[in-house]
Amino acid sequence: MSGTHRPFRAQARAGLLWLAFGLSLALGFAQASAQPIALRDDRGTEHRLPAPPQRIVSMLPSFTEAVWVLGAGARLVGTDRYSDWPAEVARLPRLGGLEDAQIEAIAALKPDVILASTSSRAMERLEALGFVVVRLRSESHADVHRALDAIARLIGRPDEGGQVWARLNREIDSAAARIPASLRGQRVYFEIGGGPYAAGASSFIGETLARLGMGNVVPPELGPFPKLNPEYVVRARPDVIMGVHREMAALLARPGWSAMAAVRERRLCAFETPQYEMLIRPGPRMGEAAGLLADCLSGLATQAVR
Fold first, then answer.
1. Which of 288, 135, 103 is nearest to 208 (CA)?
2. Cβ atoms < 10 Å from Cβ of 109
């Protein structure tokens, strides 16, 4: 009988060793995830937290999406009014926008950290109350890369930011490969929110268009999202016009616009609201957004040969 029990004792000892090893790994992970966090935001403020935040308020849709994609969606306790992806964030309290943030409601949530734009003046009151407000820019691809890295470090998953950025770039490259040669180099006018603002060449949208081989009627020196006179667009004579579908009819009815070849020949990309919202958000879905642009441009090329 003793010989019979020996294999079972060996198996039990092996099982205990594996259990101890697993517990050691789990303990190591818990200790690593509880390590202090130090980072400098885009306003130059140095932030130090004793551990990754467990209660996060996001005051920009692109930051909400980044937190979710980076694997910390369960830590979100509130968002700005425009965050709507993924659908799960709809259950969270809506806390206003850039200039009308609901200060008392945010404070009542007792967040460990608040993610906000560098341009939001409303956050100064929360900083005065002692809350940690991490301010990040989101105008260019470089800003998106830096924001993903910063948020990944903040939540205690520093390697995830680079992985999401690499995946995003692969998706943009894949979209670029689908742009017909006949369209490469053509100049785009991309209207933001009913105008007269535009996505210039130095914006993240303009940089995505450049990665797709497209030009832009708004040069870098005018800034990422300049306010334009509608006559500027007429004089610029874009080859392709892009905007949100619900406002396209009013856009095309502007004085003088019917004379543009892009309007006469219907070289238009009119995106439904959910797709348009993705296009104008500088976050982890920019690769998918590049695919939407490629789909429309490919369709225009097919339309041209009919």
1. 288
2. 17
